[in-house]
Automatic annotation (TrEMBL):
It comes from the Bacteria. It comes from Archangium lansingense. The keyword Lyase does not apply. This is DUF2243 domain-containing protein. Keywords: Membrane, Transmembrane, Transmembrane helix. The chain crosses the membrane at residues 12-37, 57-79, 91-108, 128-150.
Length: 176
């Protein structure tokens, strides 16, 4: 099995983009829409006038456009990775990459929006710093767990959709 080239980068890239998009959707759906703790641009909570509500909706919409694009790009990369026989189809690598993407989203979004720009907080009001720090820690935990899964996934060598013997034949004959 050692003679089969492994290219995990394709599955990792797809997983990170999908994790970013899906993690953003969880944030937007859960925190923005269902719990209504904040909006992307929470100038006042709860919004008390129609203009503020419209501004919040536009910014939340732009946020969801971003998460949709990340998800769509991730699906495209995953599709391409699935067509390549040299890409190991590793659940650990893929789930780890999803976790890295979601965690990186939380860390970057949390640092920029909650701490640097202060345009919104996870749960504004009493204890908002604790919620914001908890969001960052959860993101860092997701990145760390994902990194561990990706590292253990390196042992997975079976190319997608093909038993090892068929993969060896394809690689030996130069057919992809």
């Amino acid at each position: 099995m050692a003679d089969i080239p492994r290219h995990q980068g394709a599955i990792i890239s797809a997983g990170v983009l999908l994790g970013t998009g899906l993690g953003g959707f969880i944030d937007g759906i859960l925190l923005h829409q269902l719990l209504q703790w904040h909006n992307m641009l929470s100038t006042q909570l709860p919004p008390t006038d129609l203009v503020t509500m419209k501004v919040n909706m536009v910014w939340d919409g732009l946020f969801h456009v971003f998460t949709w694009l990340m998800t769509a790009l991730g699906i495209g990369l995953l599709w391409r990775a699935g067509q390549r026989p040299e890409v190991p189809w590793s659940t650990r690598t893929f789930v780890g990459s999803l976790s890295i993407g979601w965690g990186a989203f939380n860390v970057v979004e949390g640092l920029i929006d909650h701490h640097l720009l202060g345009i919104h907080h996870v749960h504004p009001g009493a204890g908002q710093l604790a919620w914001d720090v908890g969001f960052l820690l959860f993101g860092a935990l997701l990145v760390g767990a994902g990194w561990g899964l990706v590292r253990t996934g390196r042992k997975d060598t079976r190319p997608r959709g093909a038993p090892v013997t068929i993969a060896r034949k394809r690689l030996a004959t130069g057919r992809a």
